[in-house]
Amino acid sequence: MTDREENDVAALCSDRRYEAAYALLVRAQTAPLFRLAVRMGLDSDDAQDVLQEAFINIWRALPNFRCDSKFSTWTYRIVANEALAALRKQQKKRLWTVRASDAPEAIATSASNDVYFQADDALALLHRAQAQLPEKQRLVFQLRYFDEMPYSEIAAITGTSEGGLKANYHHAVQKIRAMVQTIKPNPADDLLTAENE
Amino acid sequence: MKHDGIHLNEATLELLQIQLSAVPQRERQRTRIRRLVTGFSTAAAAVALLVWLRLESTAPATLQAEAWLHQTTNLELMESLETRSWESNAEEMGSLLTDEELNQLSLVKTSES
């Protein structure tokens, strides 16, 4: 979401034109939020359900938004929470059919088979490895690595301190590197090298 | 933003945007329906309460009548019914019957006595 869009939404909200503000949020945020939900390991249908729920919450809460953070950060936070809840529900269901130790592998497989996913081997391997991280660590990794968000913004989304986030991200990178190396010595390792330095 | 290999289908995205844009309208409808349902259920509860209160208020009289019936012998009951039907309900009957019918009834009663 650009600064101009942020200002426009804020201006519309201060004029109590919530419907117009909401329409602008939908136009600007649907694609990045859908991408976030898919990247977190949800398939296309579940990601759409998550966005539906999230935008109902956004519409209901819009009149009470105090502009403490950016609108984009706020919407990311709502979608991240909804996606985490959906993933937990899926895991509970999966426990009945798949052994707990196989669950991360199942998420990785479903993400790789998704029709919207097309990438080279290195990126596919990276996705596979990050799908095995704990949910919150995965979220931090994605926001930092793929979305290149500053730690302050990620802290506002996840409700964690910046120090904690840095440690979280460092552990996530270490784990992904180890996972990638156990699968096969791969160029995916190179993707992380620059980021870690 | 780094390339993540995820390609969003434009058609799906457009459809999703249309669905999300309809959320305010759907929410308004839902609120209206919720208000209607609340109104109807409150009215139904009020009617049920009134009926219950009415039944409760007549319950002691019914119990008293049942007790009286239990204690009274058949003969007494017959006598009581005869006198009650003529004496206590005379006014009520007067309002329901025409003058001609009332006259006929008085004739019958006089002939019986």
Number of domains of chain B: 2
Helix proportion of residues of chain A, in percent?
Answer: over 70%
Number of helices of chain B: 5
Question: Which chain pair shows the most residues in contact?
Answer: A-B, 34 and 19 residues
**How confident overall, as mean pLDDT of chain A?**
81
**CATH architect. name of the largest domain in chain A:** Orthogonal Bundle
Q: Which series of helices and strands of chain A comes N to C?
A: HHHHHHHHHH
User: What does the main sheet of chain B amount to?
Assistant: none
Determine the CATH topology of the largest domain in chain A. Answer: Rna Polymerase Sigma Factor, Chain: A
Distance between the termini of chain B: 111 Å
Query: Which residues of chain B sit in consecutive blocks of at least 5 with pLDDT less than 50?
Result: none
Rg of chain B, Cα atoms, Å: 36 Å
Could you say how many structural domains of chain A there are in total?
2
Structural write-up:
The complex is a heterodimer of chains A (197) and B (113). Chain A is built from ten helices and no strands. Chain A has 197 residues and is mainly α. In chain A, α4 packs across α8. The radius of gyration of chain A is 18 Å and the shape is globular. Chain B has 113 residues and is mainly α. Chain B folds into two domains: 10-58; 72-113, no CATH class. At the A-B interface, α2, α3 and α6 of A face α1 and α2 of B.
What would the keywords be for this entry?
heterodimer; A: about 200 residues; Rna Polymerase Sigma Factor, Chain: A; Arc Repressor Mutant, subunit A; 10 helices; B: about 110 residues
Summarize it.
The complex is a heterodimer of chains A (197) and B (113). By secondary structure, chain A is mainly alpha-helical.
Chain-wise SSE layout:
The complex is a heterodimer of chains A (197) and B (113).
Chain A: H1 3-14, H2 18-39, H3 44-61, H4 71-97, H5 103-113, H6 121-130, H7 135-146, H8 151-158, H9 162-183, H10 188-196
Helix pairs in contact in A: 1-2, 2-3, 2-4, 3-4, 4-8, 5-6, 6-9, 7-9, 9-10
Chain B: H1 10-21, H2 23-71, H3 74-87, H4 90-96, H5 99-112
